[in-house]
Amino acid sequence: DTGVSQNPRHKITKRGQNVTFRCDPISEHNRLYWYRQTLGQGPEFLTYFQNEAQLEKSRLLSDRFSAERPKGSFSTLEIQRTEQGDSAMYLCASSLSLLWNSPLHFGNGTRLTVT
Amino acid sequence: DAKTTQPPSMDCAEGRAANLPCNHSTISGNEYVYWYRQIHSQGPQYIIHGLKNNETNEMASLIITEDRKSSTLILPHATLRDTAVYYCIVRVNTGANSKLTFGKGITLSVRP
């Protein structure tokens, strides 16, 4: 399968712990996006990268959140000192920037539960 | 990006066409209309997008009105597996602003 891959699929952690999620985009897709989705809501944009450069960050991305894409391929999203309000599905998507209207392709997400 | 308005839910019978409406009255000339769907516990799935002409692919058809203020996604022969939340999104395509902004979408229930 050559789609967007996210690991782990599920993560349960205790409040105050740090967690890290990984996203592997579709190969040759140079744009990578992170979204968060809570129950009953549509996905909310967090941040995106073009190659290794982080070009936009949402105000939702507090200072406890950090995303990296060191070599312009896979990306990691880390949440430090997790809170119960961080419980959500974290989605990753990728696209090609060569075409202005290139659609985003999403992975199946990492579901985080903070107890 | 312009906002979209969708009814919260609709249903249709299996085998019939499902016509999902979307209003985007403030759409700008350089904004595309995108449709995604999300089946429970999965990520959003890209369906189709268009600028002003009608578009068709193996999944669906997209009909955009001449004034571009509304559109309809058509699933020609709905199946039970088409039960999902469908998102209509308007996206401006510039290099600096490529993200999608999701609303709450419309929940389509396909009944046997």
Descriptive labels:
heterodimer, A: 115 residues, mainly beta, 7-stranded mixed beta sheet, 4-stranded antiparallel beta sheet, B: 112 residues, globular
Characterization of this structure:
The complex is a heterodimer of chains A (115) and B (112). By secondary structure, chain A is mainly beta. Chain A has no helices and 11 strands. In chain A, the strands form 2 sheets. In chain A, strands 2, 4, 5, 6, 9, 10 and 11 form a 7-stranded mixed sheet that branches. In chain A, strand 5 and strand 6 form a beta hairpin. The termini of chain A are far apart. Chain B is mostly beta strands. Helices cover 0% and strands 46% of the residues of chain B. Chain B has strands spanning 9-13, 18-23, 31-38, 45-50, 55-56, 61-64, 70-75, 84-92, 106-111. Chain B is globular and about 40 Å long. The mean pLDDT of chain B is 93. Chain A binds chain B through residues 4, 31, 33, 35, 40-45, 48, 55-56, 91, 93, 95, 97, 100-101, 103-109, and chain B through 32, 34, 41-46, 49, 51, 85, 87, 91, 93-105.
Question: Distance between termini of chain A?
Answer: 33 Å
Largest sheet of chain B: 5 strands, mixed
**Overall 3D geometry of chain B?**
globular
Could you say which structural class the secondary elements and strand pairing of chain A correspond to? mainly beta
Number of E-state strands of chain B: 9
> What does the radius of gyration of chain A come to?
13 Å
Beta-strand fraction estimate of chain B? over 45%
Q: Helicity level of chain B, as a percent range?
A: under 10%
Radius of gyration of chain B: 13 Å
Greatest interface and its participating residue counts? A-B, 26 and 26 residues
* Order of H and E elements of chain A: EEEEEEEEEEE
Number of helices of chain A: 0
The arrangement of helices and strands of chain B along the chain is EEEEEEEEE
pLDDT < 50 runs, ≥5 residues of chain A? none
